């Protein structure tokens, strides 16, 4: 009789752990998707304040080492200024996310997808491109923090 009770207890414990893990993962996934959407929306609308705040903890956004120390942007205001200067070079800029996927594994979030971008630089011809992107995030102190962002060209045309 005792082994049956022990087996029942172990099964109930396993079910409880699975249910708690599923709920936590579902909540984490929804929070993660919201964080990715907030960042993606800031790119679409060129909200330099939100972009710089999210990217300030991340690595992979600039080739200029004076902004980076220990894989972090050290001066948000300087980073915002550079982003504003970059955007001011364009007469037209349209950014549309075509696909987006997100998954959470433990405290790490991975997002990826495709986007279309059209732009007209003040000194160069109009360009459109399809690109794919991916980003890695980590949940720290209850918040999703962007760690790395990567994009690459799929197709371009003028």
Which overall shape is indicated by the principal axes computed on the Cα atoms?
A: elongated
Low-confidence stretches: 20-24
Report the major sheet.
4 strands, antiparallel
Please tell me how large the radius of gyration is: 21 Å
Average predicted confidence as pLDDT:
81
- Helix content bin: 25-40%
- Distance between termini? 77 Å
Element-level helix/strand string: HHEEHEEEE
How many helical elements? Answer: 3
Query: What is the strand arrangement across the widest sheet?
Result: 3-4-5-6
* Number of DSSP E strands: 6
Beta-strand proportion: 35-45%
Structural class: alpha+beta
Describe the overall structure:
This protein is α+β, with helices and mostly antiparallel strands. It is built from three helices and six strands. The strands form two sheets. Strands 3-4-5-6 form a four-stranded antiparallel sheet, with helices on one face. The chain has a two-stranded antiparallel sheet with strand order 1-2. α1 packs across α2 and α2 crosses α3. It is elongated, with a radius of gyration of 21 Å. It starts with a helix and ends with a strand. The model is unreliable at 20-24 (pLDDT under 50).
């Amino acid at each position: 009789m005792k082994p049956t009770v022990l087996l029942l207890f172990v099964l109930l414990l396993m079910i409880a752990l699975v249910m708690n893990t599923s709920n936590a993962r579902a909540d984490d996934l929804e929070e993660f998707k919201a964080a990715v959407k907030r960042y993606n929306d800031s790119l679409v609308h060129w909200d330099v304040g939100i972009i710089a705040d999210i990217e300030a903890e991340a690595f992979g956004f600039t080739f200029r080492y004076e902004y980076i120390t220990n894989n972090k942007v050290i001066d948000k205001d300087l980073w915002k200024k550079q982003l504003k200067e970059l955007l001011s070079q364009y007469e037209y800029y349209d950014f549309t996310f075509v696909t987006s996927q997100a998954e959470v594994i433990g405290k790490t979030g991975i997002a990826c997808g495709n986007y279309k971008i059209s732009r007209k630089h003040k000194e160069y011809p109009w360009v459109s491109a399809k690109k794919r992107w991916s980003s890695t995030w980590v949940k720290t102190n209850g918040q999703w923090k962007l760690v790395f962002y990567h994009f690459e060209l799929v197709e371009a045309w003028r």
